[in-house]
Amino acid sequence: MSRYRLDTGGLIDRNAPVTFSFDGQSYQGFQGDTLASALLANGVTLMGRSFKYHRPRGAVTAGAAEPNALMEIGEGGRKEANTRATVQELYEGLTANSQNCWPSLRNDIGALNSLASSIFVAGFYYKTFMWPKSFWEKIYEPLIRRAAGLGRATHERDPDRYEKAYRHCDVLVVGSGPAGLMAALAAGRSGARVILADEGSLLGGSLLYENDVIDGKPARDWAREMLTELAGMPDVTLMPRTTVFGWYDGNIFGALERVQKHVAHPSHNAPVERTWRILARRAVLASGAEERPLVFPGNDRPGVMQASAVRTYVNRYAVAPGEAAVVFTNNDSGYRTARDLVAAGIAVRAVADSRAEPAELDAGDAEVIPGAVVTSVNGGRSISGVDIRSAKGVQHVSCDLVAMSGGWNPVVHLACHRGRKPDWNEDLAAFVAPEVGPELVTAGSAAGQMTLAGCLKDGAEKGAKAAGEAGFKVRRVGVPKVKADWTYALEPLWRVKDGKGKAFVDYQNDVTDKDLPLAVREGYRDVELAKRYTTLGMATDQGKLSNINGLALLAEATGKSIPDVGTTTFRPFYTPVSFGAMAGAHTGTHFMPVRKTPLHNWAQELGAVFVEAGLWYRSQWFPQAGESDWTESVSREVITTRTKVGVCDVSTLGKIDVQGPDAAEFMNRLYSNGWKTLPVGKARYGLMLREDGMVFDDGTSSRLAEDHYFMTTTTANAAGVMSHMEFCHQALWPELDVQYVSVTEQWAQMAVAGPFARKTLEKLISEDISNEAFPYLAAGEVTVLDGIKGRLFRISFSGELAYELSVPADYGDAVVRAIMHAGEEFGIEPYGTEALSVMRIEKGHVAGGELNGTSTAYDMGLGRMMSTKKDYIGRMMAQRDAFHRPGREQFVGLKPVRRQDRIRAGSHLLRLGEEPSMANDQGYVTAVALSPMVGQWIALGYLKRGRERYGETVLVWDGLRNIHMKAEVCDPVFYDREHEKLHG
Amino acid sequence: MARAARKMSQNVVVPARRRSALDGVLQQGRFGVSLPDGPGVRISLRHPLSVVTVIACKGKAKALDEAVQRLCGKACPQAGLSVSGRGLTWHWCGPEQWLAVRDDRTDGVLYGELREKLSGLASVSDQSHGRIVLSLSGRNARDVLCKGTPIDLHPRQFGPGQCALTQMAHIGVHLACTGPDMFELSMFRGFAESFYEWLTEMSLEVGYEVL
To answer: Three-class SS of residue A112?
Structure first.
């Protein structure tokens, strides 16, 4: 065993050795280790290179705030950059690699940056890479991206699954240290539904690494007992490995659960990570406090650590982070580290206390030097000693570990996520969480309680209060006794002046104590500006260690107090959250739901190519063997339909049952044309306007009974029309006795069109559907295949003799197959949405491209659809002068002059000889089709005064493709202008 | 009716079979993690089923209550509640709107019955083919559902006889608690396959059996 692994102690399983690799070298650790503790146990202190100067770095923390020990974990699609080795649990076969170094971590050429550090100061990029401007995108940015950086993302597909979920509780407790545990116990014993969430793999927080005694037991044993009790309560949920990352409106918390980030082979049955949205009546924030580093020269060398991190490695992981230590502190808690190191048999060469007259504290047998500061650290990839300056002068002390404590910062992030700033506490020289109302209260050291007894008591009180406010009868819990509790007192030391070498404020972004005054001198005095100019507090750690020290230096440079400087803005996420966890299961085809029609399988069997129309998958065309181009398939489908018979799935059209005594009045007010005179058993084309007078939607609706209409809408607007109806009924005309509901999915609907449409349908339908009995625009109930009750509508979008047949959806598949069978002798073929579109363009029917929200019924040539005998939505606004200005763009047809020219939708129209400009713009193309009936590409569009300009040749200008052509303006009805076929 | 057929001109018979949206999708068997105490959830399709939307006419809520009382022995349920009686279940699904469900009527029959008996009191629309109803039950049913719905599913908050309109996996779902650890989920048929794929994926962790 390595000499860095202590013989006893720790929460590791010495019977479960784990093999892992770092930078290709194999090592051993134990179950219960983090990657960082296992590396330290193997004597590996060099774990990364810094962002800008590529300085060698080691772990400075033992937790979530780690700025240095960032690694790429995993291989292939599972590779994840910027993983903090200090929180990554060790598992068998774990592969870790250092990042941001080349050719290796030990010998990194980028470290030359350090030699030129006088030019790499704050704002370096902005100053250096300004000119020439054209160099930025091609040269400077790629250069910077390569030189500086934080690991590389994989380009492979993530093989793992992610999920999202909701959870509700009466009391959410964030953090399971002494305050959180007591809060959960108090709330749980009162009967409240409690969630106790903690980012750690084990619950217990600081109790897992502090050598305290509670109720006569070691703290970790006491914690285990309490957790066992909590686990036995049916309404308490314990959530380890779960980081509560954000606090949102409605007391909703976001949390990330690492379900399988600690296993060698994630099971496909479970997600690797899960994002929780926790809806809590009350929440207790017991997120603890983070120890501040001290700012002194060489404070970034591998081997310089938070004093509490040193205690964690020694006590929780049984790792000696060094063989001889120096403790550098400005407060009482540093002594705990000295005491624990001595107890573990690790030499403590000195306790340098920056306070001139510190109180007597237990430092083991270590020598305490009052009024002392560390002025330099010897070493590069590891340390060999420090210089300590005190009243006695400068003395050199050899050591390979420096445990530093600059005081403690309450972790206030969540309480500040909704905009409140934290409050400055002069005694603690730190910001504490603000009062944010009863929904979220802060407890324990997050609230400034810096003793164990204080945390236990505060947690118990606030947990009980939260349960009471959530409506439970509070059962008081006794506060356990702490043996020999530690005091907490400090004198701020914001930086060591006049030392040798760089003193870092922000490790992750290589911000030194010189950069902040420089930013101020250059005018970036405001805290938010100084942050962005120096990059202090940015990147993955978001300044958890650096921000307060940075504010203090900014205060010094601007001559303000720290609270006057103020903090930057706290935003979610507390720690990084993967994109996979944000997406959950909704990736790939499941990005959005897939909506299939009842005829989907049938169309798929026939080889249909599907197109997404909103969420629907619609059959677009049905290619046949030998067809090389989609236009070939579509033209065949059009010709078959126009000369024989075709069948098309139109199930996606919105269908709404409108019923009730006032159904006719309701229809009349919604549509611009009249509906009261429509006889039962008839269909009618209807136009709906928006309140502003523009055309909203169109469709064919039928009257099935005096008080029953069957409305159809376009596929795209189905939901919009339904909400429009709800608004109109609920807000505008609540007096109407009308009921309506979407029945879109109840019916499979197919258009059967072409000269043989009737002959085909006659074979399936029991009723007489001859032209006399069932003329154009007839609508009624029919019996299909001897038993199925369907609805038949004699309506046509294609312009052919056509019907739309609705049958209950489960029968759709059988009925469409029966139609195909019945039409076989006439040469029936299915047609898709493209053929449908070609035929409607040939007939000059408006659709999506023309119903564009900026066109009026007059523009579309549908002015006759606007009744003058009644009121309806949009009537008043449609009378505005501008809607009747003679220069408006009007609906026209367009035919390229050269027959072979392919006209494109979106092209603009110009007078011949005029330059393209906004002023000269005459209109645009809305839809195009290769028309087999006309024998060339044709188009629909809007053109100024279009209806007066039939026969004129205009320029069709396609600036996107740089294809321009001449086209003749014509009537938008290209085919069967007399509409004779409809009545055939 | 469900077996209706018609002789075609060439004397070919095409059987008209009701084909549910999950026909060919739903696979019976056990999937996902295998736990000693059996699958955490059981999934089944209720098909064929009669589902009818009932919307009260203006000012007729009270008369409708009486009519429904005669049909199933209970008045129309208030918001968020379901009632059952005499084989008929009545789920709230919106202000003065309900879904009437029963499984012992052939196609169109429930619709016809309600249309006649509630005439003048409510509008009815057949949705038997438009909605698909899945049953989800088992000790982990709530653990699976909470992956989709923000509704509080704790038995104290959402127990038997309660129902709600919600969204799961971006799909509108009518969710009803039909018994202890028993739920029914109903949605538009077009989304059924997509929803089923999501539901089964979410059930992998607890193990599921498709009946």
So the answer is: helix
Architecture of domain B50-126: 2-Layer Sandwich (3.30)
Q: In order along chain B (211 residues), what is the average pLDDT of each group of 10 residues?
A: 42 66 96 96 97 97 96 96 97 97 94 97 98 98 98 97 97 98 98 98 98 95
Q: Which CATH class is domain A643-831?
A: alpha beta
**CA gap A364, A343 in Å, rounded:** 7
Kindly list the residues from chain B whose CB atom is less than 8 angstroms away from the CB atom of residue A616: 190
Residue in A with minimal Cα distance to B57: A737
Architecture in CATH of A13-124: Roll (3.10)
Q: How far apart are CA A719 and CA A740, in angstroms?
A: 13
What ipTM was reported for this prediction?
Answer: 0.94
Kindly state the average pLDDT of the residues A67-86. Answer: 94
For A408-418, the pLDDT digits (tens) are 999 999 999 99
A657, A743, A817 member nearest B14 (Cβ): A817
Contact criterion met (CB below 8 Å) for A344 and A368: no
Instruction: Please tell me which of the candidates A193, A593, A821 has its beta carbon nearest to residue B170.
Output: A593
B54-68 per-position pLDDT tens digit: 999 999 999 999 999
Q: Of chain B residues 41-80, which have a CB less than 8 A from chain A?
A: 48, 53, 55-59
Q: Which residues pair with A618 in a beta bridge?
A: A611
The torsion defined by the Cα of B157, B158, B162 and B165, in degrees rounded to 10, comes to: 110
Q: Angle, nearest 10°, between helix axes A219-231 and A178-189? A: 30
Q: Which of B75, B98, B73 is nearest to B86 (CA)?
A: B73
Q: In sequence order, what DSSP letters do the residues of A648-689 get, joined into one string?
A: EE-TTSEEEEEESTTHHHHHHHHBSS--TTPPTTEEEEEEEE
The arrangement of secondary structure in B31-46+131-210, i.e. its CATH architecture, is 2-Layer Sandwich (3.30)
Set of chain A residues whose Cβ sits within 8 Å of the Cβ of B150 = 166, 277, 279
Query: Which of B127, B169, B193 is closest, CB to CB, to A743?
Result: B127
* Contacting residues for A809 by C-beta, under 8 A, at least 6 apart: A598, A651, A745, A746, A747, A748, B21, B129, B130, B189
> Residue B5 is nearest to which of A164, A269, A786, comparing CB atoms?
A786
| B 165-194: CB under 8 A from A | 169-171, 188-191, 193-194
Q: For residue B35, list chain A residues with Cβ-Cβ distance below 8 A.
A: none
Q: Which CATH superfamily is domain A293-406+491-501 in?
A: FAD/NAD(P)-binding domain (3.50.50.60)
| Contact between chains at A745 and B146 (C-beta distance less than 8 A) | no
CB contact under 8 A, B204 and A270: yes
Is A593 in Cβ contact with B191 (below 8 Å)?
A: yes
Min Cα distance B31 → chain A (Å) is 9
Cβ <8 Å between B16 and A822: no
Query: Taking 70 as the threshold, does the pLDDT of residue A240 lie above it?
Result: yes
From B208, which residue of chain A is nearest by alpha-carbon distance? A269
Common-topology check for domains A162-289+410-471 and A293-406+491-501: yes
Rounded Cα distance between A836 and A649, Å, is 10
Q: Scanning every residue of chain B, which has its alpha carbon at the shortest distance from the alpha carbon of A592? A: B170
Is the predicted pLDDT of residue A158 greater than 50, yes or no?
A: yes
pLDDT, residue A148, reads 58
Q: Is the pTM of this model over 0.90?
A: yes
Q: Where are the domains of chain B?
A: 31-46+131-210, 50-126
pLDDT in tens, A647-693: 999 999 999 999 999 999 999 999 999 999 999 999 999 999 999 99
